[in-house]
Amino acid sequence: MSKLAVDLMYQPVGGALAQIKEVIKSVEAYSFNQVVFYLTKENRYLFDGCESKKVVLKFVPFSNTSIVFRTLWVQLLMPFLLIITRVDVLFCPGNISPIFSFVKKTQWIGTVGPFEPNFISSFGLKQKIVLFISKYLIILSSKTSDLVIFESNYTRNLFVEKYGQSKDKAAVLYIGNDEYFHPVTPAESNIFANYNRRDFLLTVSHLYPYKNIELLIESFKQMSLKKRGLYLLIAGSIIDEPYYERLKGLLESYGISDYVVFLGRLERSELKELYSQCKAFVFTSPFENFAYTLVEAMSCGAPIIATNTTAMPETCGEAALYFSPNKEEELSSCISRFLDDEKLRVLYKEKALIRVKKFDVYSVVNQKTNKLLEGLVDKS
Hints:
By secondary structure, the protein is α/β, with parallel strands linked by helices. It has 14 helices and 13 strands.
């Protein structure tokens, strides 16, 4: 009987959260006879509605937010448990895996933050230490993995060229497109009943300093002088409260507080409507391993403006206008082009819907994941 173990001793967010939910939902189609998930009680909600008899949940009495406990679990305790439970393949979708393992292991690297100096510099000393430790755990464990899955060619090439990752053990697997997201017409939308604003720019992002929201606010200040009645909607959880207060102070100093709305975390149904009806979707983060929100926005036919760095051009191709992440005038120019030219907006909406077909739906991604994991069993 073949057995797969999955390490869920971490907190998946964003595209990674959506992806792991789909993995769980599709586990019945996996060729393994049994799939053992190691997790904390905080992640129990991920299995709501899961009825597969293949699934075995093993709860671990550790915090999934502490780097100390996570390191202890991954590097010492989990390898010992894998021997006892006679697992064939270990799947670690949370960036790190055991450096020493007695079973075949696959590591999914879904972050680029610890490898970007500008990302690290945006945090305090404690978080910088955590990122430093994470960086070298990722590097060391990837070198002993039988297979490493990356979410973009950008990240794969970074590891191969700079950190000595073997090309033969490196695979690229884009996060799948969620079929839930598709264009919504104004007649089908309820969002205007809530906001009553027909002209708005949209960004969807957790509020972290490195997300570069200040640049968008600077640009919006210029746009609001030229186009009255234009609004900026910012959707996403407030992760960093001091940063949120700093942004609000910036809005007040510019006198544009009434035209910028922090929506907080939204339901997918609301996001779908906003993506579909925005004048432009603006993505200001200067570094991402893979920007899943761009895939969501393209699925809804949003005209996209994105930074020209890391994995963003790989994601959007010709379906976006690009700007340098530190050039407010370039961003303002991109926004003006969409606001002033309806034909250009329509063209890029069409380009987005074509481009998003490049990204397989979740079900296909899981088929590919299963084949990769199966391949490790065949080699053992």
